[in-house]
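Record type: ASSEMBLY
Status: queued
Input:
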Amino acid sequence: MNFSFIQKIRGESGLILVSPPFFYALLLLAFPLMGVFALSFWTQDYLELNRDFTLDNYREAWTGAIYQALMLRSLKISILVTLLTVVLAFPVAYYISFHVSPKKKPLWIFLITIPFWTSYLIRIFLWKVILGFNGVINGSLIGIGLIDEPLKFLLFNQGAIVVTLSHAWIPFAILPIYVALEKIDRSLLEASEDLGDGPVRRFMRVTLPLAMPGIIAATLIVFIPTIGDYVTPKLVGGPNGLLIANMIEVQFKKANNAPLGAALALSAMFVVSTIAMVFLWFNRKYLKQGQ
Amino acid sequence: MAKAKQSRYLVVYIGIFLVFLYAPALLLPIFSFNDSTIVAFPLSGFTFAWFIEVFKTEPLLTAALNSLLVAVITSVFATIFGIFAARASTRYQFPGKRGIMGLIMVPMVLPEIIIGVSLLVIILQLGFNLSLTTIILGHILLCLPFCTAILSAGFQGLDKSFEEASQDLGRSRLETFWYITLPLVMPAIISSLLISFTISLDEFIIAFFLSGTEATLPVYIWGQLRFPTRIPIILALGTVLLLVSLTLLIIAEYFRRIGARKTGTEVKGGLF
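Status: finished
Output:
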């Protein structure tokens, strides 16, 4: 009796305490998202908004050839970026967790993040310098006599977007995988070895399954925000490298068709969340293990 | 034998990876000291001119001041809100806790373009003008989950018995919070301030959607990237920014370690 009374008071003070940030998020996130949702069912009449309910924006977003093409291209690039980032990140996380002495681990993690503490825009621009016609790679290859003319396929295509975005997101993939690897009880590895597993079998049967929660987190952390990037495609993507986020930006700014932009943004979010959910569902057994 | 060979492959890979990782960051200072407007090898000479130009370009300095103002206000508010959220989530059980904390943390996984677009829609619908204030509103939202995560770790590491002792000795709850809890989590508060400051300073996507006539530094940089002759100045600016954020991060890490020692927890990898 007395106990539940105390709990009630505690519950109330918890609610009072959490209310400033909660109302902030409600007012500036939940409420605006509902606004975007409503907007996506309206139409733009030049400067005025026509508030009659319509599904036309979604019809256009899902059947228009250009929007379909951009959405598919964005998805393809996001998936490629995620795959490349996670594959590149795993050995690094593994190295830091298993081969670096415990005292030096924080230093290594710091080392991984240093390149990312300058302007995001400038970093992407520097990839343009590296991959460009007169860029660092072409210059070096000509310099050592491997090629006579600059390679043109390096910049202004989807491959350039994938490389640049992978670079931008790699620390966000290394960190969760590293955390998962750190949690692995080292005696399990010894046990598997004692029971006759070679290094490859031990890795496949013990290390990899136990690292899965980190790999899953890394995948989602990279995949979800990548779909919203419009800076990288614009700087290194060239004419055939524009993505759905660029179209969303155009609709909200230059084209002045915010309702279509809203429908496109929500459709993209829907597609990405659905893929994320399916991905989580397929990997559910690994996540249960973790708890 | 096989094991040694394997780890040698791994070390080779790590070497190549570090080159890939550091390529842009190493080119940045190289080209910002290069005496040419063309950003390409071979280098033509050493100069400080671009750095001097950075400090002489009026709109750049204005944008930098705007960014500083936005980042300071953002970090203060995001940290204050973060203290509320972290304290509530680590100390109290309350109805709807998962949903409420989920809403606060969601901007961490939401594409920034969605945050930018939704705030833009609502601000224009309500008839407000875009300004630095609207950027600050967006940045607080974006930084809040990061602050909450850092501060929750700080509050979690706190030994409850300190607070209980203070209350047993007659301090009120508010006094206890002010004299005991806050000083103990001060290092987490400082990390939270610095991290949100750094995030806000570099944030472009939300700022681009929500900026009116006054640009922040990333919005200014975005405009300048179109003009080839302006590039070296921007690269010099990038070098300055790299040094500034590195300094801030090292300070943040220093305070985090002090905090970990104070609360008696082990000093681990933590933020980086």
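Annotation: Chain A touches chain B through 85 residues (CB under 8 Å).
Annotation: The domain at 64-290 of chain A is CATH 1.10.3720.10 (MetI-like fold).
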